[in-house]
Amino acid sequence: MKMKLCFSILAILIVVLSCGTPLVAHAQLFDGKHEGLLLGIGVGYAAVASGGDYEGSAVGFITSGKIGYGLSDQFSLFLSSAVPQLSLHLGLMYFTDPNSNYYLQGLLGFASSEEDRHLSISGGIGYELRDHVSFELMLGYTRFSDTYTTGINFWTGEVINETSETNIITIAATFNVHFY
Question: 176 with 132: CB under 8 angstroms?
């Protein structure tokens, strides 16, 4: 259900960006400055490693979407969602120099695992290869903690619970298209 919702949101964002951008380009909405409305989509590759009760690693494709607002030519706030992690983050983008193509990015939000949500944090660096096209390297951390029932003591009626904890590190490299 959650996966279908994320794919639906991403599909709507892609349709809006691909159909709507030519119509509003003449209205100076997406003028190339970092101020004002920010819309973005990205695709890339991610490596995930987990340790703790569930150890393992995986690599695969990742997609992301951004919607936000540039408060100045150097500072933007946005909401970001990534698939396949099913995460929602509040992020900020900061260009250290208005004339530089480099920017720093930080995100704080929630990642989902089945029915639970867990705090997730990530940060990284980006480089605008040309207007509206960028490359980002991101490092993320999520700690999953889950308490579950393993049994019931027949004599006392006491419920026996156990807790599992898993630390997840994600490294992602994505190409992005930003409209601002």
Answer: no
Q: What per-residue confidence (pLDDT) applies to 50?
A: 81
Choose among 91, 151, 150: nearest CA to 121: 91
Sign of the Cα pseudo-torsion (116, 117, 119, 121, in order): positive
Find the helix or strand (DSSP H, E) in which 14 lies: helix 2-25
Query: What range defines the domain where residue 62 resides?
Result: 2-21+32-179
pTM of the predicted model as reported, rounded to 2 decimal places: 0.70
Alpha-carbon gap, residue 41 to 177, rounded angstroms: 6
Per the domain annotation, does 128 fall within a domain?
A: yes
Look up residue 146 and give its two tokens: 């889950």
Residues in the chain predicted with pLDDT less than 50, given as ranges, are 1, 16, 19-28
| CATH at residue 161 | 2.40.160
- DSSP 3-state assignment of 36? strand
Q: How many residues does the chain have?
A: 180
Sign of the Cα torsion 37, 68, 94, 171 reads: negative
What's residue 64's pLDDT?
A: 86
Q: How many domains does the chain have?
A: 1
Q: Left if phi > 0, otherwise alpha if psi is -120 to 50, otherwise beta: which for 36?
A: left
